[in-house]
Design brief:
By secondary structure, the protein is mostly beta strands. It has helices at 185-191, 252-261, 278-283, and strands spanning 31-34, 37-38, 47-52, 61-69, 72-75, 81-82, 87-88, 94-98, 108-116, 130-134, 157-162, 176-183, 199-203, 208-211, 217-222, 225-234, 243-247. The protein has one domain: Trypsin-like serine proteases (Thrombin, subunit H), CATH 2.40.10. The protein is 8% helix and 32% strand. A hairpin with an 8-residue loop joins strand 3 (47-52) and strand 4. The longest helix is centred in the last third of the chain and has 10 residues, at 252-261. The radius of gyration is 16 Å and the shape is globular.
């Protein structure tokens, strides 16, 4: 996929996956799945989309995200900033949707009650993580998150999904997925010398997340099910250098504390029913 996910451009000269453009990290943040394959129907039901309300669904796609608990979506902080003004979008200008791999399919829409962001500075990769609280339960399919002891899941083969720009430079109507390899932190710093702690690198030559799909999950396969290890945030050229992802483990304490304040909790991995069949596991999607 040209870029499964929309990334955001860094002040490091990265590219954001969100909307509009600035000459900074924010520009690396408009991302999509590059050189990806279509996700089969009835898979990836934990994938959500964030839209602008003043545009049609496909044109108004801002970012992706993963449903991690009843009423909660995990995504990237930069998704909620207008890249032309660097200001937060009013929350009533945004909607979330879920329930279909097709943007023009039978999707359920929900309003945003609150977006939780902490210590994030637009245009920088640190703390590029957000939790979206909605007015809807968001179905019953949840993305389990990597636990603190799951550091090995951040290595090896990983998967990404998104509707962002493809190698044909169009936003995909159908959700796309791709597999890629993790880069150790020391190797990642060879591409991005100023990368902060809490950021993961992953990619394959010609396969990456790209414009339009920031906020979507980077995941590993564990015991025949997916586990989210990262959140798509940025990169430098779709499919050229490895993409950048906020580490779920690094921010896990903040995630749990934010949910607990509202009386919510994410679904523990051991409570999620394994849904991957052998073919799905082999292809890296379930």
């Amino acid at each position: 996929m040209k870029g499964i996910l929309s990334k955001v451009a860094y002040t490091f000269a990265f590219i954001f996956l969100g909307i509009s453009s600035v000459n900074s990290f924010a520009n690396t943040q408009n991302i999509e799945v590059f050189n990806g394959k279509p996700v089969p129907r009835n898979y990836a039901k934990w994938q959500a989309a964030i839209h602008l309300t003043n545009k049609k669904v496909s044109d108004g796609l801002v970012c992706g995200g993963s449903i991690i608990a009843r009423g909660w979506i995990l995504t990237a902080a930069h998704c909620f900033y207008d890249r032309s003004t660097k200001q937060r979008f009013p929350e009533d200008l945004l909607l979330v949707s879920y329930g279909s791999v097709a943007l023009d399919g039978k999707r359920t829409f929900a309003h945003i009650n609150k977006v939780h962001i902490q210590n994030y500075a637009y245009g920088l990769p640190a703390n590029d993580i957000a939790l979206v609280q909605t007015d809807d339960d968001l179905g019953s399919d949840f993305m389990p998150l990597a636990e603190q002891q799951d550091q090995n899941l951040e290595l090896g083969e990983l998967g990404v999904v998104g509707w962002g720009e493809t190698e044909k430079s169009f936003v995909s109507n159908i959700l796309l997925y791709a597999t890629m390899n993790a880069y150790p932190y020391t190797n990642c710093k060879q591409f991005y010398p100023e990368i902060p702690a809490g950021v993961l690198c992953a990619g394959n030559k010609g396969t990456d997340t790209c414009h339009g799909d920031s906020g979507g999950p980077l995941y590993a396969i564990k015991n025949n099910n997916i586990v989210q290890v990262g959140i798509t945030i940025a990169g430098d050229g779709c499919g050229v250098k490895p993409g950048l992802y906020s580490s779920v483990r690094f921010y896990l304490k903040w995630i749990d504390q934010t949910l607990q304040v509202t009386g919510s909790q994410r679904v523990p991995y051991n409570n999620v029913i394994a849904t991957c069949d052998a073919k799905a596991v082999k292809n890296g999607i379930c």
